[in-house]
């Protein structure tokens, strides 16, 4: 079976957060395949765990995908500070790691970047028998600084290729495709005929034993927290994802939540944590605060990663219009305001740059939603974009991002344990990916086995199939499919 078909059949979606169907994304021809191992969200450790323990599988998938998309360059980008992970990948590249092979010549994370030379090896995939074969694509390791958001697709493409992805564009516009490292691990499973039914998740924060949990999709967050020793707080909030971009859930919502294909982190925090309070600020209050407190210092713009790439996004100017103007729909004719559509929601402006505790990111999100509702497309005005020469000096160190977000206490946790979840019930959302929700192909009362197809991507739509994470009996089919593990 062709690799692309294996990926589609396994229901693989981008595991870095957005959940874009991988079969669709990789149905392309590109010059660059970039595997995103930056894991720039300050508390997440999942990709690092996979690099240390599944390096061979990641390398194998990267080689296979590189060949499939016709890439001339295949790069695994990770922080130069990830020394153990670097070593594990290098070993996999030289064929010393598990399930890997192929020749290599690497120089280690201290090397100065692509031009200066990096770890390198031929891609390894089943057909190659673990050895270099004609037509294989060299895989190289690319060292990134420890900054946030190094893993943002557009930032990463610039770091590796020095090409600027146009505003509202995608890496394909400059001949690149970016795929998350955990996605590569899932592709390796797909190559073995194993569908994506289990997720590796960092469970950290106010838990007794921060750990990586491997959980079937549909496992409750509560079960994952229990496997990390339980919460230290009686009532808590949870961040679904990382502290910079993740979704904050209140106590009740978190107790109802279940793992999806895109869950990468479950961060338990005090119910009244700063991030929880910030996430609840109502629009009216944001506006009053912007009017009263925005001092137009422009730090939000100076440190904005998209502005630093040369994109015409200037959050301080949007704030000025928001503070002075009427409601959001009345601002949408203003071309400056419309630039909110190219905000990547990284949170640098809000959680780090702004000295007044204001919320440019959330205001941008509101504007973008209103533009969508009004059917206003983003229009590029310029034809060329050049990164700011100051960009190198304005990268936000990851540890400082953690400190300003109030999560520094958890930043230095060493997490290298794996807990396997074996839930008795899973609640699997039919909305696991970008695009259309999957359509159930099972009914209440059906008996299913682990890995069985239970919901299918609708014909001709962007989406992904869903498979059962546990065997058992289907007890409910609504927006969710509930499976109980009955004997
Ligand atoms: S969230 Fe703020 S810093 Fe990040 S891209 Fe948007 S405006 Fe720029
Ligand atoms: S950083 Fe804060 S105070 Fe300064 S311009 Fe931006 S929103 Fe206003």
UniProtKB/TrEMBL annotation:
Keywords in alphabetical order:
4Fe-4S, Electron transport, Iron, Iron-sulfur, Metal-binding, Repeat, Transport
Judging by the UniProt lineage, the source's domain of life is Bacteria
Keyword Cell division carried by entry: no
Tell me the Gene3D superfamilies matching this sequence: 3.10.20.600, Alpha-helical ferredoxin, NADH-ubiquinone oxidoreductase 51kDa subunit
Any one GO molecular function term: electron transfer activity
> Where does the signal sequence lie?
none
Region Disordered, annotated ranges: 95-129
What region holds the 4Fe-4S ferredoxin-type domain? 284-314, 333-364
State where composition is biased (Gly residues). Answer: 98-116
Protein's UniProt name: Na+-translocating ferredoxin:NAD+ oxidoreductase RNF, RnfC subunit
Q: Which organism is it from?
A: Enterocloster lavalensis
């Amino acid at each position: 079976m062709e690799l692309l078909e294996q990926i589609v059949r396994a229901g693989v979606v981008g595991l870095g957060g957005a959940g874009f169907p991988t079969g669709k994304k990789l149905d392309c021809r590109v010059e660059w395949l970039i595997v995103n191992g930056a894991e720039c969200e300050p508390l997440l450790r999942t990709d690092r765990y996979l690099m240390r323990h599944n390096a061979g599988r990641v390398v194998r998938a990267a080689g296979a995908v590189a060949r499939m998309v016709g890439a001339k360059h295949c790069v695994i980008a990770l922080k130069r500070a990830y020394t153990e992970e670097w070593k594990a990948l290098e070993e996999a590249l030289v064929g010393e790691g598990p399930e890997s092979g192929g020749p290599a010549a690497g120089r280690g994370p201290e090397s100065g970047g692509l031009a200066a030379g990096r770890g390198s090896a031929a891609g390894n995939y089943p057909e190659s028998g673990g050895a270099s074969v004609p037509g294989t694509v060299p895989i190289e390791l690319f060292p990134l600084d420890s900054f946030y958001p190094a893993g943002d697709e557009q930032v990463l493409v610039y770091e590796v290729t020095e090409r600027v992805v146009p505003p509202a564009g995608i890496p394909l516009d400059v001949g690149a495709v970016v795929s998350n490292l955990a996605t590569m691990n899932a592709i390796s499973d797909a190559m073995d005929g194993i569908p994506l039914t289990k997720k590796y998740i960092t469970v950290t924060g106010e838990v007794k034993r921060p750990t990586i949990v491997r959980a079937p999709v549909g496992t409750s967050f509560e079960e994952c927290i229990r496997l990390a020793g339980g919460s230290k707080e009686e009532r808590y909030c949870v961040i679904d994802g990382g502290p910079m971009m993740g979704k904050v859930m209140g106590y009740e919502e978190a107790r109802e939540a279940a793992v999806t294909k895109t869950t990468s982190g479950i961060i338990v925090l005090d119910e009244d944590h700063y991030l929880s309070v910030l996430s609840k600020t109502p629009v009216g209050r944001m506006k009053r605060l912007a009017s009263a407190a925005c001092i137009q210092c422009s730090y939000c713009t100076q440190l904005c990663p998209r502005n630093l790439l040369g994109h015409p996004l200037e959050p301080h100017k949007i704030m000025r219009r928001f503070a002075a103007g009427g409601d959001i729909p009345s601002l949408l004719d203003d071309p400056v305001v419309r630039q909110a559509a190219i905000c990547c929601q990284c949170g640098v402006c809000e959680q780090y740059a702004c000295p007044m505790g204001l919320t440019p990111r959330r205001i941008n999100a509101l504007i973008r939603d209103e533009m969508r509702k009004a059917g206003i497309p983003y229009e590029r005005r310029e034809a060329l974009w050049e990164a700011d020469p100051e960009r190198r000096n304005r990268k936000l160190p990851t540890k400082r991002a953690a400190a300003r977000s109030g999560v520094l206490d958890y930043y230095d946790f060493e997490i290298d344990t794996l807990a396997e979840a074996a839930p008795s019930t899973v609640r699997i959302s039919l909305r696991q990916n970008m695009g259309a929700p999957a359509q159930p192909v099972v009914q209440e009362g059906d008996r299913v086995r682990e890995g069985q197809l239970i919901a299918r991507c609708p014909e001709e739509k962007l989406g992904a199939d869903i498979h059962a994470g546990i065997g058992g009996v289907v007890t409910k089919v609504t927006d969710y499919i509930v499976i109980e593990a009955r004997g």
